[in-house]
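From: lab user (bench 3)
To: helpdesk
Subject: output format question, protein + zinc ion

Hello, I'm new to running complex predictions and I'm not sure whether the block I got back is the full result or only part of it. Here's what I submitted:
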Amino acid sequence: MKDNTTTLRTCPLCGAQYGDVPALSRKYPNTHICPECGIREALESIGVPADEQEKIIETIHKSKG
Ligand SMILES: [Zn+2]
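Helpdesk reply: Thanks, we reran it on our side. This is the complete output you should expect:
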């Protein structure tokens, strides 16, 4: 039997519910966050300002269709 139910997780950082593979937070050990927050943390860690982070995330959303 294959379990087809999608487990929705709630991101502790932004509160969003997501069914994708979680990202592991760099800031908070052993904390799973949504893929978007994972991208934000990664960008932040390389010095990308918040408004640029949003633009990049927007671009990723568009490319997903
Ligand atoms: Zn999040």
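A quick orientation on your result: The helical segments are 35-45, 50-64. Let us know if anything else is unclear.
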